[in-house]
Write a structure and sequence with these properties.
407 residues, alpha/beta, Rossmann fold, Coagulation Factor XIII, Chain A, domain 1, 5-stranded mixed sheet, 8 helices, 18 strands, 23% helix, 38% strand
Amino acid sequence: MSNTIITVENISKSYVLQHQKIRHNDSFREHITNNIKSIFKKKDADQSASQETFWALNDVSFDINQGDRVGIIGRNGAGKSTLLKILSRIVTPTHGRIKIEGRVASLLEVGTGFHPELSGRENVFLNGSILGMSKNEIQKKFDEIVAFAEVERFLDTPVKRYSSGMYVRLAFAVAAHLEPEILIVDEVLAVGDAEFQKKCLGKMKDVSGEGRTVIFVSHNMAAVKALCNKGILLHNGSIKIIGSATHAIENYLKTGINTSSHFDCSDYVYGDDIIRVLKIEILNGFNNTNQIKFDENIKIKFKIDSKQDFENISVAIGCLSIDEIPVFTTRGPVSIVKGENEIICEVKHNLRANNYHFAFGISVGEKSNIYHNPNAFDIEILDIGNNTQYLTNNAGFVNVNSSWQIV
């Protein structure tokens, strides 16, 4: 007897995008006038706009078994959210069909399924009713839900007054505790603090241990690896990999490594826009790439444009594994002048051979967000020579010196 609980067959989903044609000879006043006129025109084959069909999903098929913990991963725009909305029956596919056996509870964005004017208590019962549970069944789970969400003091407060963290805590507690056969959770958990995220991952493991199915979307590969036993990697609306979570994650991470020694950062501006980092260059990259030999220091040059002079600003470089596990952070005080500046940082390291992701930030005094780029650049540490002991990926991130003696 098959224990398949979700069957997805040749799912495709298209959206029609409207593109307004701009007549470059028009003045600004004419643009405004034409836009006002268009309100009163009948919608027809007017040349003022063109249409494009965008396929968010294209011929996607897979099966999910009862008790599976499935991680759906992929870059932004890969089709993850569209797929979850179809599985949650929020949208219908353009082509194909899905078959789902059992009750589905979805947590796709902050506020999913909650009525803002109702209290937390009332929303618990409302959500339970939507899932088809009786009042007595909800009441049996009520204390457990409230304890998990840690919102006892605000139970009788309208949820529109909740912070995003409180909203998510209660929404997840309701979705996870009201015994759906299938629990679907999107990146929304990123709103909560680290301790709450850990708590949610543990609860989702418990849910699958009870024979229920979990579908989880996240950009946090460490969380996907910790929770999921299966993985689906989406790319441009199609399935690229389907198999174990580890296999899907490895392929996802490989596609995201930038091998250039020059990184154009002019499009990445986070903070007050007082400082812009225009370019990052790896000075000692092997064969003009971002590859560094394991026994060499990392030399990085930053080209910075500032709107004013700064003395003793704090510049920070954070190193993470490619699945977003922090490895180290280094900080240095520097002074910059108004206009373009170049800063060189040399990092003495003992990193093992692997790929690493770097974030970069600048703060001044108590202002911690003068500039912050979480996706600054990537580096690959190479093991050149006979040092094969450094090649194992499960041996940690750093090499250490040690001495041994028999006593």
